[in-house]
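LOG
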Amino acid sequence: MEDLSQAVEDPWKDATRNSTPDGVAETLLYSRAMPSTFLALNVHIVFGTKHQAPLISPDQIEDAHRYLGGTLRGLEAVPLRVGGLADHVHLLVGLRGKHSVSDLVREVKKASTAWMRTTESNFAWQEGYAAFSVSPQDLPAVDRYIANQEAHHARTSFAEEYEELLRLAGIEFDSS
C-alpha cells in the first residue's frame, strides 16, 4: 500500500506564532483547508398580493421594489433583483448562512405590508410563496427574467406564471 502521508499537506504547516499585546502567545493558522465559511445561496422568491388583486398602483411599483430591496438589506440579505407588477413580486436574493427563507419572507411581507398600508389601506400579500434555488451560473438568466416582467405578463397571467415556475421546479401542487 502506498504511503499517502507525504501527499496530504500538513494543515499546521503555515502556522505562525504571534504575541498578543498582553504577551500571551497565540497560534494562527494560515491554511487553505477551510479558513472561513463560504456560501453561494441564491434564491428566487415569488409571492402575490391577496387574491392576486392589482393592489400596487403603477406609480407605487418602483417605490415598492426599492422598499423591498431596502428591507432585504436591513435583514442582511443581498437583493440582486426586485421586480414584479401590480399583483406580485419577484425577489432574487443572496442569502447568508443565518437566513431561513421562511423567516426572511415573513419579515419582508410584514414590513412591506405596513409600508404599503400607508397609502393602500386594504393591502395584503397572499399567505404563501414560492422559492427556488438559483445556481450562480443561472443568476443572469433569472435576473433578466425578473427585469422583463412587464413584457412577460403582456402574454401570461401571474397565476399561469406561478404554476409554470412550480412545474419547472418539479414542485407538485393542486391547480384547482
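LOG (cont.) second protein
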Amino acid sequence: MPRRSRIATGIFLCGRQVLGLGVSTERKSCKDDGKTRAMALVSLVGGMGFIGSRLASDLSARGDAVRIVDAAVTRNDDGQYLRVDVRDRHALAASIDGSDVIYSLAAVHRDDIKPASLYDEVNVLGAVNLCDACRELGILRIVFTSSVAVYSLVADELSEDSTTEPSSAYGSSKLRAEQVYRDWQAEEPNSRSLVIVRPTVVFGEGNRGNVYQLFRQIWSRRFVMVGNGRNRKSMAYVGNVSAFLVHVLGLGAGVHTFNYVDGPDLSMEELVDTILIAFGRQPKLKVRIPYVFGYLIGVVCDAVAAASNRRLPISAARIRKFRSTTTFSAQRTKSIGFQPPTSLREALLKTIKHEFFGSARSD
C-alpha cells in the first residue's frame, strides 16, 4: 500500500500546490533529468529561511512533494506551510508524518541571541525532538544543515576530519545537535541515512547577512580595509548550497559529513576588488587601518552598545572575524560527483546585480 499522510496542508506536488487538510500524498512518479522516478515527500523543517526557501523551490522544480514546517510567519498564512515550533515535540511529529526525507534547517544563528539558552532550546532540543519523531514514524533519512562554526575561529583549510573546537555558543549547539543525529543514526546503522552539511558563510540574492553588509559598505563608500587584506575567506552561494543539498539525496545508509565551500578562496583584498569592479569602480582601496586600531574601535563600540542597550554594526568580535583567515576544504563534495552550477565570481556578480542594479535595490 502506498504511504499516506494524515496532514497535507502545505504540500507542493510536482510544483503544484495542494491545499486543505486531509489531502492524500499518495506516491506518484515524476520526470527527473529525463528519467521517471517515484516522487518523494520531503519535509523542510525550518524551510522558510534563506537556504530553505531556495531548497523548496529546487526540490519542487525537480518534481518532489515539498512540505514546509516552520515557526516563522513570513508569508500570508494561505496554507503553503505548517506553522510549527521545533520545541513542540508532538506538533513536530504530526507535521512530518508521511515524509520520506527530513531536512533539518531550523536554528537560531546570530552571535548575539538573548537569552543564550535559546541556542540549546532550538538547536539541540529541536534535534532531539526531530529524532524522536523520526523514530516514532519510521522515517529513515535526515539531512542536517550544521555549520563550519563547529570548528575553531581561526581555520585554514580545515577538512571534515579536523578537530571540532567551537568558539561560540552557536557553534557549540550545532556540534551537540550533530551528535544527537549521529546517535539516532547509530541505532539502525544499516537502514538510517544521515547527511551533515557544514556550510561556510552563505550569501545570495535576498540575504542580508555579512556579505551583503560588505557589499553595502563598499557601495556607499563607507568601507575601510582593516589589516593588510591578505587573509582568505571561504564563501558559499545559496544556489550552490541548495543544489548540493538536493544532490546528497542520492546517498544511502550511513553518516555522510561534508563541508560546503565554493572555491577558490579569495583574500579580502581580492574579494573587495571583485566587488569594486562589479560596481564599475577602480580596484585597490587606498584607505586602510592597522588591525590593532580596528580592534580598539570594536571594543569601544562594544562598550557603547552595552551602555545604551543597542545593537551596533561594529564589534570587537566582528573585527576579529573580518581579520582572521577562515578557509575550509571541500574536496569531499567533489568526491561524490557534485559540480556547483554557478562559479563563485559569477555568484558574486549575480547577487550584486540583483541587489543594487535590479528590482531589489534599496538605498
